Amino acid sequence: MKYNKWMTYIVPSEWNQRTVTEVLKGPLLLSNRMINRLTRSRGIRLNGSMPWLNRVLKTGDRLQVAVRPRERSDQEPEPIPVDVIYEDEDWMVVNKSAGIKVHPTQPAEGGTLTNGILYHWKETHGMEGIVRPVHRLDRHTSGLLLVAKYAYAHQLMDRELREKRIRRIYWAVACGRMGEVGTTGTIDAPIAKEPNHPLRRRVDRGGDHAVTHYRVLDRSKKATLLQLELDTGRTHQIRVHLAHLGHPLAGDKLYGGSTAYIRRQALHAQQLHFTHPLKGEKMIFTSPLPQDLTDLLEKLGLYTAGDGK
């Protein structure tokens, strides 16, 4: 996968008979200023040729824009293993291990997923760039993370996220026995910073809007296996919401979870669903539970199919 400044958009049926300008401003979200810059630099192509901006498009037309600049990160590449689930010229999905930070939080800090991705790009594709995660995963949360390779690619996916067209599904083990197997519910509770703690968040009516949906997959005397889906992406959202219900995540010492069976929060980003903004293809990715969580389920007598205990 060599460097290519051109990003390609295949015109879908819903944009048939619309002009180049309408598509550039519509699904591609380009500003008038950027369109003018691309026009001056001959950075717009339609089926391989430079088009008039009032040209009417047809379904299947290939519209290209030169929006991939050459960039270099301030972070250094490091040979840290990265489990790449999917990758194209604009985005990648990685399966993050628990215990590794996504980004450095201190100057010159290394050992993060970002350092490993930069190394992967350099060794596999001979390219540099800036790592731009589309959503968040805490250091001790495992599972699927969507990463954009360029600012413009991040902008497109950030719109999908804000308009709730990216589904993020998690599996978690909560302390205590919650509801019946199959029970569903929604936690709609705003989240704010804890005033006297540098890391903790809490439910607070003056906080940011936060919504989490859950379903009970199984339960035992000591714990409950949950599937959760986020409508919003606040810091520590699942951790705060479950603690608010009185059922903190197993292993989540910060929010009162028991560390008797696991030393990190029992939270795994298990599924990621979205439609590729440029190809129009539905993308679904699944990550199996890591070994420490499967061991935890066994210790607590929980099973992913549920057995009505």
Q: Could you explain how this protein is built, in words?
A:
This protein has three domains: 6-66, Structural Genomics Hypothetical 15.5 Kd Protein In mrcA-pckA Intergenic Region, Chain A (Roll), CATH 3.10.290.10; 83-162, Pseudouridine synthase; 167-300, Pseudouridine synthase (2-Layer Sandwich), CATH 3.30.2350. It is an alpha+beta fold and 309 residues long. It starts with 5 loop residues before the first strand and ends in a 9-residue tail after the last helix. The chain is elongated and about 65 Å long. Helices cover 19% and strands 27% of the residues. It contains six helices and 15 strands. The model is unreliable at 305-309 (pLDDT under 50). A hairpin with a 3-residue loop joins strand 12 and strand 13 (223-230). Strands 4, 5, 6, 7, 8, 9, 12, 13, 14 and 15 form a ten-stranded mixed beta sheet that branches. The protein has a three-stranded antiparallel beta sheet with strand order 1-3-2. It has a two-stranded antiparallel ribbon with strand order 10-11. Belongs to the pseudouridine synthase RluA family. It comes from Desmospora activa DSM 45169. Keywords: Isomerase. Its EC number is 5.4.99.-. It is an enzyme of class 5 (isomerase).
